[in-house]
């Protein structure tokens, strides 16, 4: 049976709200929804107006009792009038200002009418990672809630603090309440200078007096909070702690200029200038602090660090020694002092400073052990260096510099086996530089005269970089030193395969053949070399010497003449040329060469004279 269609007609069924709608809550957590629903009636959107009635700012406030609302002072400071809008869209008149705290950007204002007061909690237990929930006004005037977490506790001096937060929100949240999981207010959001976002602990808001006279806006003198000392100093410090150098510099310069006696502002400014590598300006700022506060250890340390960055190490030593006398327990100070001593080559004092740094048991003690090891190496105290570097390696076993320095210490201490093991470990830790570490093993064993071990490492270098001509060339040199001449020749020929214009490979081939008594092959190789390096006297000398060994003195004559032509004062070439002339029975030419040799090398000339007729 076919059902009849049902038509429902609604007439005039249209819901109209004259107040801001609550934001969609479907995506919020259960806690967020509950906190918003239970507290939204005590939160208001705030709009500040100029004397011409134009809007100059938006923010949020919350009821601390039925008549008083807490918000940020920077929203109030420029206002000639304000209005509040509750969750139902009702506009509430703001009658005036009850109390202000310029230091932390807090204001209490009085509204006409009443709001349900919210529960103020205790902010003493706030810690990084705590979940928090902020209620505020979005750009359209709607009250919404955002969830985030606490980040860093920023010390603001004299036991006071603020917090950075992980919380995405618009600037109009500024002045709004922040709740903990216990659904009590733990702080107030603040957004300064369009991006400096932080939380003011509720216990700071609690210190505000509710007994002051209400100052109506008709008696209020507007001021730009960020242009006065308190606002600039607060914004400057927040920017400093959040690594916003540009804003920190702008605001701290303003604060220090408005109150030259505020040495803390000058100290923060000096630190920002140093971070920005504006070192001359940083020195000037630190000097101002020290002039007003000669025993300011932090300023002395900062100045010392700037001098270190400028490589003015003697100046750094002077101020850091002064800081150490004032505060001998500052661990960071001794590290910096050690660095300054180290750069002035005073390794004894540097080692002592790094030792004091280590004794303070800092969390990064390994860095002190590393620098201490470097100092002991400079002092040729290799066993002490090894001991310090092993301590560094305990906590940083994969640190490249620590391992490399330890290998060097073992090497200098005459413990090549231990050094080799560390170099091989470095090759595993840093594979892209493995060939470099094996090359160091090659060099170490070569210098120690242990050519067999050197060859092992050189073969590994070639295995890692088979097309690297230097690696193959060095392997050939190691074979040569071990009298393994055939393998040396093959290695040098491999170099020529990689780079045919590698003249030095021909030279080494010729040298290897001459060591085997293969003089014809040696001559051919050296001739190849002279073709590529026609101005190198040693190539011509070895060609001539090869012919002399074959007793082919006629052929030896031209290369030796070429050698003397290139270097007339080359004693060895002159001597051999004279010997060739003698074997060719040209005594006249031999004596002429002898006369030249007498001026160049009397000892060789005396030896030659014995053969002259």
Low-confidence stretches: 1-26
Number of helices: 26
CATH class of the domain at 30-225: Mainly Beta
Radius of gyration: 42 Å
SS-based structural class?
alpha+beta
Q: Summarize the amount of helix as a percent range.
A: 40-55%
- Give the CA-CA distance, first to last residue: 145 Å
Look up the CATH topology of the domain at 30-225: Thrombin, subunit H
Strand content: 5-15%
User: Taking all residues together, what is the mean pLDDT?
Assistant: 93
* Side-by-side strand order of the widest sheet: 1-2-3-6-5-4
Q: Per CATH, which architecture of the domain at 30-225?
A: Beta Barrel
Quick summary of this structure?
The chain has helices spanning 30-39, 73-77, 202-206, 229-241, 245-258, 263-275, 279-292, 297-309, 313-326, 331-343, 347-359, 365-378, 382-395, 400-412, 416-429, 434-448, 451-464, 469-481, 485-498, 503-515, 519-532, 537-549, 553-566, 571-583, 587-600, 602-609, and strands spanning 43-49, 55-63, 68-72, 81-85, 91-101, 106-111, 131-137, 143-157, 160-166, 177-179, 185-192, 196-201, 215-216. The chain is of the alpha+beta class and 613 residues long. A six-stranded antiparallel barrel has the order 1-2-3-6-5-4. The chain has a six-stranded antiparallel beta sheet with strand order 9-8-7-10-11-12.
């Amino acid at each position: 049976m076919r059902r009849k269609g049902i038509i429902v007609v609604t007439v005039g069924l249209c819901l109209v709200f004259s107040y801001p709608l609550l934001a969609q809550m479907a995506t919020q957590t259960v806690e967020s929804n509950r906190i918003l629903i239970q507290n939204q009636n005590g939160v208001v959107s705030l709009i500040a107006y100029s004397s011409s009635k134009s809007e100059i700012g938006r923010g949020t406030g919350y009821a601390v009792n039925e008549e008083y609302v807490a918000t940020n002072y920077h929203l109030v400071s420029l206002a000639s009038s304000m209005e509040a809008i509750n969750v139902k869209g009702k506009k509430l008149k703001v009658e005036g200002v009850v109390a202000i705290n310029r230091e932390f950007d807090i204001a209490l204002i009085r509204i006409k009418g009443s709001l349900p007061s919210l529960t103020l909690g205790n902010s003493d237990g706030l810690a990084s990672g705590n979940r928090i929930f902020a209620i505020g006004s979005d750009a359209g005037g709607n009250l919404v809630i955002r969830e985030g977490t606490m980040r860093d506790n920023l010390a603001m001096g004299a036991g006071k603090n603020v917090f950075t937060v992980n919380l995405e929100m618009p600037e109009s949240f500024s002045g709004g309440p922040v709740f903990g999981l216990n659904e009590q207010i733990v702080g107030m959001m603040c957004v300064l200078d369009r991006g400096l976002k932080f939380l003011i602990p509720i216990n700071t808001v609690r210190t505000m007096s509710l007994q002051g006279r209400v100052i109506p806006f008709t008696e209020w003198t507007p001021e730009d909070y960020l242009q006065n000392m308190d606002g600039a100093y607060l914004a400057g410090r927040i920017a400093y702690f959040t690594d916003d150098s540009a804003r920190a510099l702008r605001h701290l310069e303003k604060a220090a200029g408005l109150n030259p006696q505020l040495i803390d502002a000058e100290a923060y400014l000096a630190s920002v200038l140093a971070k920005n590598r504006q070192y001359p300006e940083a020195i000037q700022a630190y000097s101002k602090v020290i002039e007003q506060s000669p025993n300011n250890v932090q300023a002395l340390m900062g100045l010392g660090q700037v001098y270190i960055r400028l490589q003015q190490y003697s100046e750094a030593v002077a101020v850091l020694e002064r800081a150490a006398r004032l505060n001998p327990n500052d661990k960071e100070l001794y590290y910096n002092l050690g660095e300054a001593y180290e750069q002035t080559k005073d390794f004894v004092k540097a080692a002592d400073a790094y030792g004091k740094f280590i004794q303070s048991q800092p969390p990064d003690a390994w860095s002190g052990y590393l620098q201490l090891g470097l100092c002991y190496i400079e002092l040729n105290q290799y066993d002490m260096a090894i001991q310090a570097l092993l301590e560094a390696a305990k906590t940083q076993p994969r640190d490249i510099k620590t391992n490399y320095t330890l290998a060097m210490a073992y090497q200098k201490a005459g413990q090549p086996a231990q050094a080799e093991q560390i170099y091989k470990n470095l090759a595993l830790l840093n594979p892209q530089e493995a060939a470099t570490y094996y090359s160091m093993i090659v060099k170490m064993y070569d210098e120690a005269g242990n050519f067999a071990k050197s060859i092992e490492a050189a073969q590994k270098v070639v295995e890692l970089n088979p097309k690297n001509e230097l690696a193959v060339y060095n392997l050939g040199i190691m074979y040569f030193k071990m009298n393994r001449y055939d393998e040396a020749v093959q290695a040098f020929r491999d170099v020529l395969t990689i780079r045919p214009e590698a003249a030095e490979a021909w030279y080494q081939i010729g040298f290897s053949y001459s060591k085997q008594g293969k003089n014809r092959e040696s001559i051919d190789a050296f001739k190849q070399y002279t073709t590529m390096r026609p101005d190198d006297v040693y190539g011509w000398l070895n060609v001539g010497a090869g012919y002399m060994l074959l007793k082919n003195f006629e052929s030896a004559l031209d290369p030796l003449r070429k050698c003397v032509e290139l270097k007339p004062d080359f004693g060895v070439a002159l001597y051999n040329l004279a010997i060739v002339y003698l074997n060719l029975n040209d005594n006249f030419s031999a004596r002429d060469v002898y006369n030249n040799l007498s001026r160049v090398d009397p000892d060789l000339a005396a030896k030659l004279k014995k053969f002259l007729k």
